[in-house]
């Protein structure tokens, strides 16, 4: 889900947004306090992500994986990829048993990379002691707190799983929004990691307890590591960004106004999304396959080729865009941070689906991911240590005069939602609030178009006339931007997100 947006005002600021907090106000306060203690943007991000593991455990936690995009004060950007990896004793034919639904068993759990990601980010950019980042969340988890709105909406859907033990009151009834919840086992686990370091998670007591709890999953039977690389730079106008946007070739300088203009704009955008979905099967972990195809996606010549295949008057059968048989997932949380010294962090974390695998390690309090399902429909085989493909798009955009930190949540929904916000903000001149609030279009794994309900009926009718199948959904994005001495920020209100800062 969309979580926290935190920004820090440098001296001499001339304009700003009034600081506010979202439904997880506790985590916003933790970030501010850590920054006031002298923490870096990365310290603040790690503290916030740890807090997420208890405020919104249905979305992210230390049983999952994370990708950081970090820009230091000099403008140099690094990617820290600490997504989950394939365990050492997973059967090589696992993908032949990919489910047709989102009902997943323990065998789809990947080795969590979250803690290794924190370790790498803190080693490179941290200022505060490692243990300090854990203390506020440990205290909250052990003493308890009122269940916030969004977590409360997911509790009734946990079914008859091991997760129920987290949410039962003394009478055996499920807790609800506003009730006090405690994560005492997780507090013990976090305290151990804080005091003994990351290795205890992968090689020490925690690893042994996880293996004991989940014998059949093969979990933690190999260590995890983080892959630190330079970012790929892609030009978009005056910005250098980290993602490709096919739509820039249409050279739109203003928002479509008439019904016909809107129909054509959304049709072209939908077609671009369909081609993007069809290309997902070509993206694999570069440590296990060539990244030539992925790099090709960043070239203007490739974007021009795709654009030439887009018909203005109609859509096509799914086969036209390439094989596309993956299952949609819905998880993740995103955090954008901009610090006073110009450094920035865009970070996305996930346990994949709602409550991940729905498997709780009872001795550690960790909710485990089901991230290996991301291979389904996108690969024929997997290798030990391989990371699954990802829709995460934590991005930092930098021009001579501006810095924009942006990302989204919602798994398959992330790329189209982030692209929509960028188009509306950079090309159409909307504020961050207006750009993020603008309706989002998604194309799912079945090539069905999902629109938010606020799109005009005439536009929807026009898209259906071109052959698109229409459904409804919603998604979230958050961003923070510094333009000159002015800082603005917006955290999507679709999931009650709010920006916070000082």
UniProtKB/TrEMBL annotation:
Residues at the active site: 332
Ligand binding (L-glutamate): 83, 350-352, 374, 411
GO (cellular component) term, any one: plasma membrane
Coiled-coil regions listed in the entry: none
Any GO BP annotation: inflammatory response
InterPro entries for the chain: GGT_lsub, GGT_peptidase, GGT_ssub_C, Ntn_hydrolases_N
PANTHER family tied to this protein: GAMMA GLUTAMYL TRANSPEPTIDASE, GLUTATHIONE HYDROLASE 5 PROENZYME
Organism: Oreochromis aureus
Family note: Belongs to the gamma-glutamyltransferase family.
Name used for this protein in its record: Gamma-glutamyltransferase 5a
Gene3D superfamilies (UniProt xref): 1.10.246.130, 3.60.20.40
An example Gene Ontology molecular-function term: glutathione hydrolase activity
